[in-house]
Amino acid sequence: MATIDLTNADFEKTVTAPGITLVDFWAEWCGPCKQFGPIFEQASETNTDVTFAKVDTEAEQALAAAAGITSIPTLMAFRDGVLVFSQAGALPAPALDEVITAVRGLDMQQVWAQIRAQEAEQPTA
After folding, report:
1. How far, in Å, CA of 98 to CA of 118, rounded?
2. Does domain 4-121 have CATH number 2.40.50.140?
3. Are 19 and 49 in contact (CB under 8 A)?
4. Residues recognised as catalytic
5. What are the residue boundaries of the structural domains of the chain, listed by start?
6. Euclidean distance between CA atoms 67 and 9, whole angstroms
7. Which end of the chain has fewer CB atoms < 10 Å from its terminal CB, N or C?
8. In the chain, pLDDT over 90 holds for what percent of residues?
């Protein structure tokens, strides 16, 4: 599966969909982004059950700002609409494989329970 380009218009719909979505925030002028691009693309070919998406931070500055991107490349992993991983920096292929394996292995019932517990602890305004 090839990577898809995300814009502000389709970002939320894509990352909240069931399953795993990896998002690479990048820019054309970024050297580490150019290094990571082929690794990300190769992973998309071997992990067809995962949605691989890219956000061009130059073209989508508002989206990058809303996502809190301060350094690129930044990789975010979403599972069933929950942000479960976010890290700046170009990952080598084995590290990207580890992230994918870890996200696949998450017990989402436990993740949802943790989210509910955190929300219950938040003071209401």
Report:
1. 27
2. no
3. yes
4. 30, 33
5. 4-121
6. 14
7. C
8. 90
Long-range pairs for 39-43: beta carbons < 8 A, 24 or more residues apart? 39/90, 39/91, 39/92, 39/93, 39/96, 40/3, 40/75, 40/96, 41/2, 41/3, 42/93, 43/93, 43/96, 43/97, 43/100
Q: Which two tokens stand for residue 123?
A: 């003071």
pLDDT digits (tens), the chain, 125 positions = 579 999 999 999 999 999 999 999 999 999 999 999 999 999 999 999 999 999 999 999 999 999 999 999 999 999 999 999 999 999 999 999 999 999 999 999 999 999 899 988 887 66
Q: pTM here? A: 0.92
